[in-house]
Design brief:
445 residues, Alkaline Phosphatase, subunit A, eleven-stranded mixed β-sheet, 7 helices, globular, disordered N terminus
Length: 445
């Protein structure tokens, strides 16, 4: 969710306080490293995503929805938790199976740390996690949670964060080799099937018509993985950059009878999810400064977004440089640009990891309605229109104001590392990380 830092992968449920009338249920589905061009409903010719296609056809599809960061972001605390508490590549994977019966995971992942653990609330129940079994476990957890809340007529919030589209991709036997897109497509198909199971569970529990389902992703595709790294479609670059491919995401809002089917080009962000869901639940917002807006006008009303500006931070922001880019209406200005290793291997050298930080004065200016690929700098035109000059002035002012008001917190990564805090199913063992292994079988019920 919003913010830069540790990636938390989880499947959790938080029971909302009942009110009169009761608030809706909410299912928030978060993909990882999924690009703007990865879904069939966003134009990919060989992705097989029937459940997400159903949501796109019967719900509201966003074309200008942004993550708050071009890299993975931290999540929230929950009452019930099943999952890997960080990215599943943050542990050795070269000897693990990602596709049955015996196809090993692609690459090596992080070395000299513990194997990826599976947590059930605060307990490690398996280490290393069995990737081919993970999707089914998440689905079972979610189905049981939805059914339990349905029986008690208790409004709920379910956060379903999937690993499938992040390196190394994986899938169960049922989905292995089933799509023309190869391993990435097979993993995406299992993610899509999970969405289908969630929608069916809502129907079976009698809460289908009282539940908002929202789908999006945390950041753009890791194009350095080539065909195993996702697609940003027509957008420029991908993960780790402040170009559109790094932060513009597919997003779907689905609530039959409440959210009218259609497509919106209005500006929206993951930053807006908290204010929107709080408004739907009738819950007070925390007493802190928030950068988000209630998107109810887009979902239920006039179709006009309260968000008019989007600020783009790089993966490692600092107060000296501030935001790298600003979108204001249909215009986007790049004040700084830099490549990212996550976005390597594309033909565009602007994306490469060795492409240095560049300050632009005047900024690079693009009209994202007519040029979403950021190809044509409006300030290169021989005759600059007064409208364009006025927009540049306004965007400079908005960047300066935002940078001045921003207060940076303490960097979690800057606090260093402590290997003793790595999760281990045998916490008293001494030959870490190799002794942190637990056989499968301690499954949550």
């Amino acid at each position: 969710m919003p913010g830069v830092g540790l990636r938390a992968w989880l499947l959790g449920g938080l029971a909302l306080l009942a009110a009169a009338p009761p608030p809706p249920n909410v299912v928030l589905i978060f993909a990882d490293d999924l690009g703007f061009g990865d879904l069939a409903s966003y134009g990919h010719p060989t992705s097989v995503t029937p459940a997400l296609d159903k949501m796109a056809a019967g719900g509201l599809r966003f074309t200008s929805f942004y993550s708050s960061s071009p890299v993975c972001s931290p999540s929230r605390e929950f009452d019930h938790y099943l999952g890997v508490p960080y990215s599943h590549d943050q542990g050795p994977c070269q000897n693990l199976t990602c596709f049955p019966p015996n196809t090993p995971c692609f690459g090596t992942c992080d070395q000299d740390v513990v194997l990826a653990p599976l947590f059930w609330n605060l307990s490690v129940v398996e280490q290393p996690v069995s990737f081919p079994d993970l999707g089914a476990r998440y689905v079972t957890f979610a189905e049981d949670f939805i059914a339990s809340c349905g029986r008690r007529n208790q409004p709920f919030f379910l956060y379903y964060a999937s690993h499938h589209s992040h390196y190394p991709q994986f899938a169960s036997q049922e989905y292995t080799g089933q799509t023309p897109r190869g391993p990435f497509g097979d993993a995406l198909l299992e993610l899509d099937s999970s969405v289908g199971h969630l929608l069916q569970a809502l129907q079976d529990s009698g809460v289908y018509d009282s539940t908002l389902v929202f789908f999006t992703s945390d950041n753009g595709p890791e194009t350095m993985r080539m065909s195993r790294g996702g697609s940003s479609g027509l957008l420029k670059c991908g993960k780790g950059t402040t170009y559109e491919g790094g932060v513009r995401e597919p997003a779907l809002a689905y609530w039959p009878g409440r959210v009218a089917p259609g497509v919106t080009h209005e500006l929206a962000s993951t930053l807006d999810l908290l204010p929107t869901l709080a408004a739907l639940a009738g819950a007070p917002l925390p007493n802190v400064t928030l950068d988000g807006f209630d998107l109810s006008p887009i979902l239920f009303g006039s179709g006009t977004s309260p968000r008019k500006t989007m600020f783009y931070y790089p993966p490692a922001p600092n107060s000296q440089l501030g935001v790298f880019a600003v979108r204001y209406g249909k215009y986007k200005a790049h004040f700084y640009t830099q490549g990212a290793f996550h976005s390597g291997t594309t033909p565009d050298h602007d994306c490469y990891g060795l492409t240095p930080l560049v300050f632009h004065d005047p900024p690079l200016l693009y009209d994202l309605e007519s040029d979403p690929a950021e190809n044509y700098n409006l300030l290169d035109e021989a005759q600059l229109r007064p409208e364009v000059l006025a927009v540049v002035k306004e965007m400079r002012l908005r960047k300066a104001t935002f940078d001045q008001q921003m207060k940076f917190g303490e960097s979690e990564m800057g606090r260093g590392k402590d290997p003793s805090l790595e999760p281990c199913c045998s916490p008293q063992c001494t030959s870490r990380p190799s002794c942190c292994r637990c056989p499968s079988g301690s499954h949550p019920t």
